[in-house]
Amino acid sequence: MQTKFLLGENQIPTHWYNVIPDLPEPLSPVIHPATGKPASPDDLVRIFPPQLIEQEVSTQRWIQIPEPVREIYRLWRPAPLFRAHRLEKALGTPAHIYYKYEGVSPAGSHKPNTAVPQAYYNKLAGTKRLATETGAGQWGSSIALAAQMFGLACTVYMVKVSYGQKPYRRSMMQLWGAEVIPSPSDRTAAGRGILAADPESPGSLGVAISEAVEDAVTHEDTRYALGSVLNHVCLHQTVIGLEAKEQLKLAGEYPDVVIGCHGGGSNFAGIGFPFLADKAAGKDVRILAIEPSSCPTLTKGAYTFDYGDTAKMAPIMRMYTLGHDFMPPGIHAGGLRYHGASPLVSQLVHAGLVEARAVGQLACFEAAVQFARAEGIIPAPESSHAIRGAVEEALRAKEEGRERVILFNLSGHGHVDMTSYDQFLSGKLDDFEYPEEKVRASLAHLPKVEL
Ligand SMILES: *Cc1c(COP(=O)(O)O)cnc(C)c1O
Predict the structure, then answer these.
(1) What span, in angstroms and rounded, lies between the C-alpha atoms of 270 and 287?
(2) Average pLDDT for 392-396
(3) Which of 59, 88, 96, 206 has the lowest tally of Cβ within 10 angstroms?
(4) CATH assignment of 4-8+66-108+232-443, among 3.30.230.10, 3.60.20.40, 3.40.50.1100, 3.40.190.10
(5) 335 lines ligand 1 (CB under 6 A)
């Protein structure tokens, strides 16, 4: 009964898999937020380094991972694949459940998989400082780690409520050398505008993105870094699925269903896209994204052009969206509270190649606790959505008496999220209804786009 399927360091993938050439339709253009017209690569050079802009639109199926990036990946990659024997037993299911564990990275999630190459390409392009936003701090800590490794300065705008509530991730960022600023701040016009209207504003991810983008475009030596959503971020995360495929070969299995939680779409893309390549080649595999029912972008959003941020400074993209001024309820899976979704994942959902399902917060915490008691690892609240999805699939396999193979991505550990578990275990957590009225109001404010 083998439990861990491990690869050697020489089996870290040499190339990322780019899904763009395998898409059913060409990519929709990215739209400039000020003009409403397609943005040119020149519009993006003040925001991102050239190599990342190239990757954003590349039609090359395989993109080489630079050696300095693979060298840092060696600190935690290849990440282990586990067979969840004990969870299977607890569920009494004939299904074989496998999980890829990304919590082994120094920051405790999958996010360093893209933070490291982003810092590397910025270093190559002569960037001196990175500006970014963070909600609960998973992205901020990952980019702080990566920036430090390549000798870049790093400024993180951290959503103000989280700055107060999540002191440990703030400490991690500071330990790795980043400057952490509670957002909204008086550093930027976007922040000052929000503070003038409401000095007590708790902030939001959308506002923090606006501050970080403004910081980058107003400083010559500074570029912006985004932890999810964009094509190049999804690309970098494919190391997850590429490794998992090799590891499943060691187990002599191929998945019937591949599952990831979905916030902006990057860890889901990471586990799912390499299997999508097989699906495009005719293989029978389901690929399933699980999102919170209180922020149901893929299952209840509109597939249309919308701003990436609240202040309408970030580019407009075609994606599933709940509207850029939609403010999701304060669920504990902070990393899944985003109004939009990756344009790549969105197109694949729209085309019916990827399935999406929404699940409630309490059901996810129940699954997370069951998982932790069986398998030991305490999952991040975000990852608990993938666990819930896997448990539902495993129970269905039990009902049908089928020996299904289920693979899910355990995107991170929950060691810095124990207050959430405290609240769940003491019965203080609630489910949130789908805020239908707020979504409808927000979807009334979509941008006008000229193609
Ligand atoms: C940020 C985060 C997510 C959500 O982001 P995606 O881009 O959708 O992957 C999921 N899990 C963990 C552990 C995270 O830190």
Answers:
(1) 12
(2) 98
(3) 59
(4) 3.40.50.1100
(5) yes
